[in-house]
């Protein structure tokens, strides 16, 4: 193996390309290699390795899927054929394994540092020999997946076991180590990524010096921190309750100094509120003394208990507005309750007097006595002897007697009502008066305090429930304990503005660097286009400034980047489309809108040739991937990146992949005979075999023509090999 090469092993019995449950490991066997070293039989030699085979032969499963699993990709149940479980009920398992040999110092340093960051000892995990300053390490990356039974009625779940050099590690650790070293590029996904602003920015930033990106990233982090600090202080400032005049003065002057007149006014306000606080506290103490008295009214009991649990300082120091207003609200509720209670006592007293009082001329009992007298006066006179015996009764006399009996019943009912209303121990009046005695303060006295509370609140321009908070803030302002509006918040704003100014300067440097790089790669890629079958076309990478950038965590800098595919004599219209000067016919535009799938693939590879590692940066976060000294991948695996490319363009694509393989190993799953011919190693997936000599020529012929014109196809394959040999020597 040469510098930066990788060995991919996919193990399985019979060398088939699918995963079988009987043997839990899949192996890619190279049947055509005669070599006594079994490990070398499994190696993918060469900087450029082409993997070919009929559609459906399992090329992607054998290479890109295994690499995706080893780099932390998602495992699916479809990889395990659970329907063919063994008789001993052994759970179906599969293992994906990749061996990387690292020679470059940047790769070795990355692995050792990442292991240390994961609290793993590199000396234990790795064996790093050093002879005459030359170092090499071998990474055996392995992931075993298996099905684990779940509860009845639920789908089985997948369990992963991950290993680095046979040491058990977490999936997070395996991904952190393997993902930067192995890039798996799926052609449709990569082409679609061209339509994402973050992906285009990541590709360009891969060619920016890491020192510039790190510097701007740190400036952006500092600015975001200063902005957050200012927002926190602003929120605290907004929650503070100070008089309107003081808030206005502080916001305008931005200083912590008060003149003598302002200090005298501040002290006067505090003394005034101190006196009111004492009066409210005395009222509370007076009212809450009634808690000790026995009381059957649950409402007054609740109000008194609530009031007893509150005080002025609790309301002042409570952040929640709902809680800070409870003291004022409870006093209002108590006042309303006492006013209603007093009204009920008055009504009960009047009702009792109206029923049974003899001293009240209009009472029901007095009216009843007058009725009795009228009946007596209107009744028949007594007739009889001298002893007064009634000798005869008139009809009027009988009616009078019945009326007297009915009045007796009414008198009894009035007596019962009067007894219920009376103020003895069981009467309603007694109960209401006992309840009222639990709060000795009069409603008028309580209303005076509530009115004074409202007057003070209006004086300071705040709502009544905020008065205790305002009082507390005034004290802190005088003591110097809180300097938000006068010192801390203005200082935070100055720090934020300074950080923003430094970030804007850094972004200008980054913009200049990006602009220079965009101009360079636009020229270089445009020179490649004619060889890629895109004559009279040119490529442009353009910076698009962002108005009012937010400098979010996911975007570095103050611009976006668009890729354009243009033709000669073109101008940009306001709509962003490309038109000729002499026609309204649209002939160009943004790559994601106007380029075909084949053109996108060719442009991607052209950018990769000019900015190594740019394709593997697709979809990454520019503020995280490129700011810490990014490394180039050891191996790049392309899954049919040359799809939809044919003819002379396929030869140019193959040459670009060969050029890329000079800096890292390239594995390409392909149907292109041009690429297969130029590759250092050609793997044909039938059983899984490495093809050389005559077998390789036959495979190229099959790729070119299938089963038609076999002899002519083999002549063409021979020409491909001959031409590839000439190109690689150059």
UniProtKB/TrEMBL annotation:
GO BP annotation list: DNA recombination; DNA repair
Gene3D superfamilies the UniProt entry points to: P-loop containing nucleotide triphosphate hydrolases
Keywords linked to the UniProt accession: ATP-binding, DNA damage, DNA repair, Nucleotide-binding
Region (Disordered): 1-21
Record keyword DNA repair present: yes
Domain of life: Eukaryota
Keyword presence, Secreted: no
Recorded GO MF terms: ATP binding
Polar residues biased stretches: 1-12
Family the entry assigns: Belongs to the RecN family.
Name listed for the protein in its UniProt record: DNA repair protein RecN
Organism (species): Fragilariopsis cylindrus CCMP1102
Lineage, opening ranks: Eukaryota, Sar, Stramenopiles, Ochrophyta, Bacillariophyta
